[in-house]
Amino acid sequence: MIPTVAPTSSRIQGIDAVRGFALGGILVANIGFFADPGYSVGVGTMPISEGPVALTVSTLVLTKFYVIFSFLFGYSFTLQMRAWGEKVRVRTLRRCLGLAVLGVVHGFLLWIGDILTLYAALGLLLLAMRNLRPRTAVKAGCWIIGVTAVLWLLLAGLTLLDPGGGAGPVPDPAAAARAEALVTGGPLSFLRFQAETYPMLAMFVWIGQGPMAMALFLFGLAAGKSRLFEEPERWAHLVPRILWLGYGVGLPGAIFFTWSSQAYGAMELVGVAVNNVTSLLLSAAYVVTLLELVKRVPAVGNALAPAGMVAASNYIGQSVLACLVFTGYGLALAGELAPTAVMGVAAAIYAVLLTLSAWWLRHHRRGPVEWGLRRLTLLSATPPRPRGPSSDPAAGATAGADAALGRPGRGDDPRLP
């Protein structure tokens, strides 16, 4: 049971539950790269890239969950602004430095698709734009999404002019076999694969996800300044409309995205352009659906919220456990499991992390990664300790309000992925 603060704690618990839920989506989206390293270098076929499992993952999961984390990053930044006051600039700089270092280490040692370095860089832009009014921030985010979609459409048009532009990638079995051998060959062999692949995929992440992430940062900034989640009654009447747009427009857009990704060439780029807009609608429907479910079935929030409260630790933990299953760090099962088995591994990892998160928070205030980021951010912190009254009188004076509003308090973690 997660400690709560009446009367607003259930609302904030719902937000933590969204983070916990989104962690599951991130895991499902990423685990295919661990399961088939040949896909990571663009030469193989991921185990979940064909058949019903692939269609489900591509339609309902891919590109849908990192936007939720990006939105929450922007929202949490406004909470930090309130808590840190005039120190927000220097503390944000240090936090972004910590995220960048953590991201590079994570990328080279565990997960080549790491997004923390991107968040660190975009966090600096968000810091520079922190004084934007909510309406201006929303307009800027819409412009980013719109311009990005138009660029994808223009690229699709140029592809039509290329006679060979509609051809799909040609698989290279030898390169795929080499990638799999490196990943499963042992720790040093896996590290070699990481060093060869991480820079290339990091560039893909920055180009492919950077504009959308920045737009969602700005949407989160606007929502945080408007206290959207602190005052849910202001948007409760919009729930039916959000659900209709998400499932009525966003879901068909996701289906088109999946279909077009198999067409290659210009049509694939058109699908990416459409998905730039419709993925936001479907993601919003996911969030609203879960918040409504948490209100009606509190046990769901109780199960998911602990993971959301230590989301950064869980994000790294997913990579650790996936590496132990699929790489030379552990069982070296890459390329060995069927699609349904890969999803079974994802479910098992998720269940383990949910359980560990709940256990950890019964004994500690924050997760290990969150504690490290806080230490760097504030340049002072005590080791993780049992929950209880703070020894800092100033911190104790604001602890109740920070917990009630979901604020990061005196340097608490922004609950990043």
TrEMBL record:
Low complexity: compositionally biased ranges: 389-404
KW Transmembrane (keyword) present: yes
Keyword Transmembrane helix set for record: yes
InterPro entries with a match to the protein in the record: Bact_Transport_Assoc, DUF418
Entry's transmembrane regions: 20-41, 53-77, 97-128, 140-161, 198-221, 242-260, 272-294, 315-335, 341-361
Region (Disordered): 382-417
Pfam families the record matches: DUF418
Keywords, comma-separated and alphabetical: Membrane, Transmembrane, Transmembrane helix
Domain DUF418 stretches: 223-378
Domain of life (superkingdom): Bacteria
PANTHER family in alphabetical order: INNER MEMBRANE PROTEIN
Protein name as annotated: DUF418 domain-containing protein
Organism: Streptosporangium brasiliense
Organism taxonomic ancestry: Bacteria, Bacillati, Actinomycetota, Actinomycetes, Streptosporangiales
